[in-house]
Each structure stands twice: as structure tokens, then as C-alpha cells.
Amino acid sequence: MAEIADKAERAYELEREVVTGSLSARRAWIQMAAALHAIQSERLYELLGYEQFTEWIATPEISIGRSQAYYLASIYQTFVVENGVPLDDLNYIDPSKLADTLPAVRGGLPVGEALADATELSRSDLRAKYRGVEPKPDEPQGVSVCPECGQAIRPTKESSR
User: Is 160 domain-assigned?
Assistant: First the structure.
């Protein structure tokens, strides 16, 4: 029994590390999205010695793909610039989930609904709602992240039915 308890404790510790790392990565992505948006929209890359934004992002020290840079800048533009969402409100949401909601937000969906969906829905549920992709029947539904502590909140088998 002690071996199982030790493994369970290790599993929870490692899960906390992954959740903490995931939250740190999300915060870093949204901060980078803000910087990319400013450099692109204000043409600051020219002051850095580059003729084009794509030239600057292709440098070895930046090395971000063109589509990724534009996608991040677009998320920032839509949510922060156009809809006034505080940057801190995006820290807990994966950028790919925000990107899934972009067409709907641009089409008039209330930004609060899109943020709630991106925060609360699983990837498969989000795809089903915003892209028409049905979730796989065996995928767990409704996993979300606590905005206070960053812990994953998983439904029990009974609550997910």
C-alpha cells in the first residue's frame, strides 16, 4: 500500500508541475502576442533594421513561424484592442482555444461568451461548437482550470454523463 501511496503522491506532484508550467506558458504566449502585435502594427521592426515583419520574426533569435506570429497578434487585436479584454484575463486560456473562437467573435458573438467557452469547454467541445467538429465519444468533457490556483477541475464519471 505504501508503494501505491508514494506513486499517487508523485503523480499529484508531477501534475502540479505540469499545470504550473502550462499556466506559465499561457502567460508567456499572451505577453508575446502583445509584443508581436505592437511590433507589427506600429511597424517597429523597421526601427530594428528590417524591411518586413516576416523578416524580423525569421531571425534566429526570434524564429517564430509566420502563421503563428500573425495568429498570436490577431488574438491580441481581437480580444484586447477591439474588445477591451484585460490582458490578465487571457492568462489562463490556451491561445489555440482563443483562436477557435475568433471567427465567431468577429461575427458578433459576445466576447464574454467566447472567453467562457474557451475557458470552460474541452478542446473537442470547443471544436464542436465553433468548427462543427464532433467530439470523440470516449473523450472526457468539461475539464477546466481554476483561475485562482491553476488546478485542473475534472468532472466525475457521474457528473460528465
Answer: no
Q: H-helix or E-strand containing 144?
A: strand 144-145
CA-based nearest residue to 19, from 155, 158, 112, 146: 146
Query: For position 133, what pLDDT does the model report?
Result: 53
Against a cut of 0.85, is the pTM above it?
Answer: no
Where helices occur in 42-78 by DSSP H, the ranges are: 53-57, 66-76
- Report the distance separating Cα 33 and Cα 73, nearest Å: 5
Write out residues in the chain with pLDDT < 70, as ranges: 133-161
Residue 158 belongs to some domain of the structure: no
Could you tell me which of 141, 115, 116, 119 has the C-alpha nearest to residue 128? 141
pLDDT value of residue 140 = 43
Question: How many structural domains does the chain have?
Answer: 1
In a domain, 128, yes or no: yes
Nearest to 145 by CA among 60, 21, 14: 21
d(CA 71, CA 101): 12
For 114, the domain range is 2-132+141-153
